[in-house]
Write a structure and sequence with these properties.
The strands form 2 sheets. An 8-stranded mixed sheet has the order 3-5-4-11-12-13-10-14, sandwiched between helices. Strands 1, 2, 6, 7, 8, 9 and 15 form a 7-stranded mixed sheet that branches. The longest helix is centred in the last third of the chain and has 18 residues. It has 12 helices and 15 strands. Strand 4 and strand 5 form a beta hairpin. The chain has a domain of 195 residues: 3-Layer(bba) Sandwich (FAD/NAD(P)-binding domain), CATH 3.50.50.60. It is an alpha/beta fold and 400 residues long. Bound molecules: flavin-adenine dinucleotide.
């Protein structure tokens, strides 16, 4: 039996995006709230750049998130072999460095870094060194649990933070440049201009398999920069990810797996967009709801997070259908055509798609017209399986 180091109101296990937002939001309303964030790494937030569209959030949410923003742009671009689109509307990034800079001081002594959690129960957390913390509520935000119970494709990428010898002359981010060679599924390059001469350039694939050939991706990014006429002076950093793109699965089994009765946040609770694997907007919404509760106690928090996750799953069945068409009906090297066609639709529909708020008329619009995939193969995608058909064990750089 290890040493008990104290008791508190709330323990947030994992100091990643979702739990940092929950802690930040609670403390902005109740600065003295008794909580502890337990993070195994040396800093909050790991090594990520989290981006989102203005239209993913409401005005209040954008306002409270503003101190965490590292970059903001007024529009973004998409490039395909037969289409080039500029979409007006704010696009912003939160960096893990900024998240740490803002949230760590707000937490002060309530932050335990370098503290891996070994066991989690609804009212108790045991650390790897044997110390334990009692709490009225515990939230498991340890990040992506891997592919168990979900049928997945992957959005995988490696990005380089580069300093260029000359300005890149980009006015706005390019979220997808799919004019590159189409290999390993749908491939595009994502570029965020961070200053006149700095950029984050990510080589990205919607692929069937999760493996990342890092050396090949670094070379591909260097080649892309050369093609754009950019001379890389220095590579200042790197980030990578393998995000889940959900084709189907068993959300009840997903929730049955893990510490019983413990509330979950972020990827651990399946709070992410099925077609992008992005979790920031859902994390903001969950933080808002949790911070508005008068009492934080494990039984009700568990019920709340589980119910929200099941509701999100039910609401996003249509996205999983589109994912199955992308991964199962389209020939991998021709998957880009689905996105090329999609970006010919109205900007309003595109915004609602990423915000997870498609209207029923949008849903019909997305699927009508000359389909970019063979009709028979598309029809076979209509039924959603609860099995993990074709899934392999996932390797995510950021999951244990
Ligand atoms: C490189 C990258 C870029 C991404 N870009 C975007 C984006 O632009 N927009 C977007 O919305 N989404 C993006 N995502 C997807 C998703 O939003 C992120 O993965 C997000 O960080 C998930 O948040 P989370 O809080 O669930 O998990 P994480 O942020 O991964 O946090 C989990 C934390 O738990 C800690 N932890 C794990 N186990 C333990 C333990 N036993 N004890 C203590 N601590 C533990 C980990 O160290 C980690 O800090 C990106 C993902 C990656 C990998």
């Amino acid at each position: 039996m290890g040493e008990q180091v104290g008791s508190t109101g709330l323990v947030l296990v994992g100091g990643g995006l979702a739990n940092c937002l929950i802690a930040y939001r609670i403390l902005s309303r109740r600065p003295d709230y008794p909580l502890v964030v337990v993070e195994r790494g040396p800093r909050l937030g790991g090594n990520h750049t989290w981006s989102f569209h203005d239209s993913d959030l409401d005005d209040d949410q954008r306002e409270w998130l503003a101190p965490l923003l590292a970059h903001r742009w007024a529009s973004h671009e998409l490039r395909f072999p037969a289409r080039r689109v500029t979409i007006e509307g704010g696009y912003s990034s939160v960096s893990s460095a900024r998240l740490h800079e803002v949230v760590a001081p707000a937490l002060g002594s309530r932050l335990r870094l370098g503290a891996a959690c070994a066991a989690i129960a609804p009212e108790r957390v045991v650390l790897a060194d044997g110390q334990s913390i009692e709490a009225r509520a515990v939230i498991d935000g340890r990040g992506d649990p891997g592919g168990a119970h979900l049928d997945l494709g992957y959005q995988k990428f490696l990005g380089l933070f580069v300093r260029l010898r000359e300005p890149h002359r980009l006015a706005a981010p390019i979220l997808m440049d799919a004019t590159v060679e189409q290999v390993d599924g749908y491939r595009f390059v994502y570029t965020l201009p961070l200053s006149a001469t700095e950029a984050l350039i990510e080589d990205t694939y919607y692929a069937d398999q999760p493996g990342l050939d890092r050396a090949a991706l670094r070379t591909a990014i260097a080649d892309y920069a050369t093609r754009r006429g950019w001379e890389i002076g220095e590579v200042a950093g790197e980030e990578s990810g393998v995000l889940p793109i959900v084709l189907g699965g068993d959300i009840d089994a997903f929730w049955a797996d893990g510490p019983p009765g413990v509330a979950r946040s972020g990827m651990r609770g399946a709070f992410f967009h099925p077609t992008t694997g992005y979790s920031l907007p859902e994390a903001v919404r969950l933080a808002d709801e949790i911070a508005s509760l008068p009492e934080l106690e494990s039984p009700s928090l568990f019920e709340l997070t589980r119910r929200r996750s099941l509701e999100l799953w039910r609401r996003t069945g249509y996205y999983r259908l589109l994912n199955r068409m992308l991964f199962r009906a389209a020939v991998p090297e021709l998957r880009y055509r689905i996105f090329e066609r999609f970006y010919g639709l109205s900007p309003g529909l595109i915004r609602r798609f990423y915000a997870g708020r498609l209207k029923w008329t949008d849903k019909i619009r997305v699927l009508t017209g000359r389909p970019p995939v063979p009709v028979l193969r598309a029809l076979r995608c209509i039924v959603e399986s609860r099995d993990r058909a074709g899934t392999t064990t996932r390797r995510n750089e950021d999951a244990q």
